[in-house]
Amino acid sequence: MLSRAAHVEYRLILSKPSSAFSGFQNHRSPAMALLHRFGCCSSPSSPPLLSFQKSTPNSMLFTVSAHPHHRRCPRRFSSFRLNATIVAESPTASASNGGGGPPKLLLEVKDLTAVISESGKKILNGVNLSIYEGEIHAIMGKNGSGKSTFAKGENLLEMEAEDRSLAGLFLSFQSPVEIPGVSNSDFLLMAYNARRRKLGLPELDPLQFYGYIMPKLEMVNIKADFLNRNVNEGFSGGEKKRNEILQLAVLGAELAILDEIDSGLDVDALRDVAKAVNALMTPTNSVLMITHYRRLLEFIKPDYIHIMDDGRISKTGDISIANILEKEGYKAMSTP
Ligand SMILES: Nc1ncnc2c1ncn2[C@@H]1O[C@H](COP(=O)(O)OP(=O)(O)OP(=O)(O)O)[C@@H](O)[C@H]1O
Question: ABC transporter domain: from which residue to which, for each copy (predicted)?
């Protein structure tokens, strides 16, 4: 049961806010936009508690406390308390430096902790991770070690796809959600045009969008009739995963977080999905993937593999870590 005291707190520092965050120049819109991003839309009569702490031309710091009875805040989120400093460098800033110089930091997570408020159980015990443009990171770890909690912070699960896209972030779901009554094509067109609007680009009409999406369908090896079906409704597990990658291909992302994108895929589907992810990699974007199996890493080659154990990253290395894991299991990863 919900405790009245349960609340969720966020502390974010946005360095060089991108166009997606341009509405953050006044104090009201950050609250609404941020709450919306985390799936906690409040009604005008129940404004979020927002403490706007500091703003410079390049950064903003604010804390949001969202109470559980806000519309769309599901019960399970309310039981979390997450504390972290997340530095997200804007895509615009990255792109402008794409021609040379040192790689730009896309995501920096410092000392992320997550606690179940009711029980006091710690799920994340101080996770630190930096991701630079052009890098592919993989997180492996035993069941229940905190990988998904880290990747999504739970609260991001309710965020609309277009909002994630506007923030330059793409999250694939371990179990992709169905959206009854909304066709795949309408959903993608809406999300893609929302991004174009924010970028100051003209929207595409359905015919133009059809031209845009056809090569993407080929890239992921999805038949065009999937566009007419409702989002993920009646899709097989593998089809849902392919559809996730189609969304990534259409919307684009500076940082794509792929949570067990390989689960439930047959060998051919795994190849298709991996091929598409590799094709989408550029020198200015990055991928963070969670997987249990070395097989995915043969197709999408990571620069770094992190082992998550008991809510923290206990080891970081290259593909040799996955080789040892495959042969010897997690006991070989335990630190003496
Ligand atoms: N809302 C919640 N309430 C209580 N416990 C939770 C909640 N969400 C996650 N947990 C617990 O936190 C731990 C970490 O969960 P998480 O889903 O992050 O693990 P994981 O490493 O992704 O596991 P898997 O490999 O099985 O997907 C688990 O023990 C899980 O039961």
Answer: 107-335
